[in-house]
Amino acid sequence: MTVALFFHTDSLCTDAQVVSCESSADGFAVILNQTLFHPQGGGQLGDTGHIGGNKVTKVVKNGEDIIHYSESAVALGQVDIQVDAERRLLNSRLHSAGHLIGHIGEAYGLQAIKGHHWPGEAKVSFKPLSGSKVINAESIQQEIDKLISADLPRYTRTNEDSMRMVGFGTLEPYACGGTHVAHLGMIGSVVITGVKEKKGIISVSYQVI
Length: 209
Fold this sequence. Notes:
The structure is a single chain. By secondary structure, this protein is an alpha+beta fold. The chain is about 20% helix and about 45% strand. About 35% of the residues are buried. GO terms for molecular function: alanine-tRNA ligase activity; ATP binding; metal ion binding.
């Protein structure tokens, strides 16, 4: 089992023990006893970076293990690990912005059902509930600008089902295993690029700049 350190810290470098390293179609599959690398999943791209100086190109979860795909073999034993800061920050900005869009949609009587927080294709999907209000890009843009300007701090807690919850300031938290900015001002500028409805599902597309 790999201990997911990214649940509890924003640190991007530490030491870890290489438990196994095996050749695979995607390079060398490396399993550590603990990791700061967030795997792809939950609507968020995985981290990249280095393990002992070896480039990590992909990170995925497999059961209780987190597998890091390295371009070269990594020796067993202690290594230093380093997450790419630029990619992590972009993924965190996109994910946190998606949470804000979720809150805004819910204020209009919509139910957030899916978040896809990938660069260039980020969107949040909603299901209209009874009595929901009409929502458009302009209104979402105004609301998200206000929230980012408020620069609310992030908080995390565990609910009664032992699920990790992530929220900002007075906003209700969402169950989430992803990475997020420490405070909303770190998101920077968000542009709502479109609001579309198809087969009863409303999709709000966005990007961070």
